Amino acid sequence: MIRENEQQILDALHKDLAKPKFEAVLSELDIVFNEVYYAIANLKTWMQQEYVGKNMATRLDDCFVRREPLGVVLIIGAWNYPVQLLLIPLVGAIAAGNCVIIKPSEISGATANLMAELIPKYLSQDCYTVVQGGAEETKALLQNRFDHIFYTGSQRVARCILQAASVHLTPVTLELGGKCPCFIYGRVNITAAARRLAWSKFFNSGQSCVAPDYVLCSPATRDALLPALRQIMKDFYSTEPQNCPDLARIVTPQHWTHVMELLGRSNGKVVMGGEGNQEDKYIAPTVVVDVAEDDALMQEEIFGPILPILTVESLEEGIDFINRKEKPLALYVFSDESSVVNTVLNKTSSGGFCSNDGILHMTLPSLPFGGVGASGWGSYHGRWGFETFSHRRGCMLVTFMLFITNKKKTHLISMQCSTPTKHCPKV
């Protein structure tokens, strides 16, 4: 489907988000290809019965875990990656043998319309159905009984979905977000760190649930980081970012207004960017310093191309800062010191963790992708998606072995009996 309709998909993504071709191919097409190929290569192994350890009482029995489809599942996609976040969970659901109701986001309307047109051409409509619509249609959809609901989006909508799912006690996987920290500490290659930080932050114009939401570093590191970021921003987006074809746009004028209002309420100092154009849904890649913990930019996920930089005096202070917040979907550490990386890894909790780069951990299908706490419930990608959409059925196949019990111990009789006789007493 994707191979045969690649240009149509790229055109729809550009219409919705002005996604540059490189970003669209990397984050919407290739990542789905990898997921499909990985599932095909490994599905036979995933489906095999998993035999488990036994005790003396069950040593002659077959004891195993069998993966079975859950039934009918609902997948609700998101607008920021409207192909990837719809099709990757669909791969896991299909691999596990489920029927699926597929609900693309109406906010990325061009891509949603295209998915609704293409999916029925390639998948049986008896098993896979696309439902379009907005909030009211989604509410009506959630009144039905499903065997599992998979949702990607905001915490606000997730609460509504949980409330609806509770009526039927339907299990739910939530892929949410939050404020993903980027902690730069100790010895570090500033130029490389700045390049990877800028790429992962401003990719898709900051509209990624795993984008670095803010930076923590020492004052000295900040002073070295800023000129490096300034040069890299010119390299990436030229001196006129609005005219650069490699910068995506904010999805709607309403989202543009919300992000610009966050910036307007900030007491920090804008040192790069800050410009915007509502008609074009453009916000310049922006860096803000002198940001306090209680600043407006630190109260919610920014979900736009604005990067606040906060300073800490020590490794412990940075870790304490991270741990005061909700557990993030991803946590990034930039340091050439393995002791720094391992200390942050051991003393924090997050859905995913990546050192010396950003967002790339989610592209590897052999790693689980998902949140923890407020950033999400459950995980998927690769085998983890197969497991999410499977029921692990514990099975014990018992033979007709008889036990004679006396006051002290149980004896296993190694004779199989089909009916009780005088030689084979009924027990």
UniProtKB/TrEMBL annotation:
Any Gene Ontology CC annotation = cytoplasm
Instruction: Give the Pfam families listed for this entry.
Output: Aldedh (PF00171)
Which PROSITE patterns does the UniProt record give? ALDEHYDE_DEHYDR_CYS
What GO annotations for molecular function exist for this entry? 3-chloroallyl aldehyde dehydrogenase activity; aldehyde dehydrogenase (NAD+) activity
List this protein's GO terms for biological process: aldehyde metabolic process
- Keyword NAD listed: yes
According to the entry, every stretch annotated as the Aldehyde dehydrogenase domain falls at 2-391
**Keywords of this entry:** NAD, Oxidoreductase
Q: Which InterPro entries match?
A: Ald_DH/histidinol_DH (IPR016161), Ald_DH_C (IPR016163), Ald_DH_CS_CYS (IPR016160), Ald_DH_N (IPR016162), Aldehyde_DH_dom (IPR015590), Aldehyde_DH_NAD(P) (IPR012394)
In the record, the note on similarity to other proteins reads: Belongs to the aldehyde dehydrogenase family.
What protein name applies here?
Aldehyde dehydrogenase
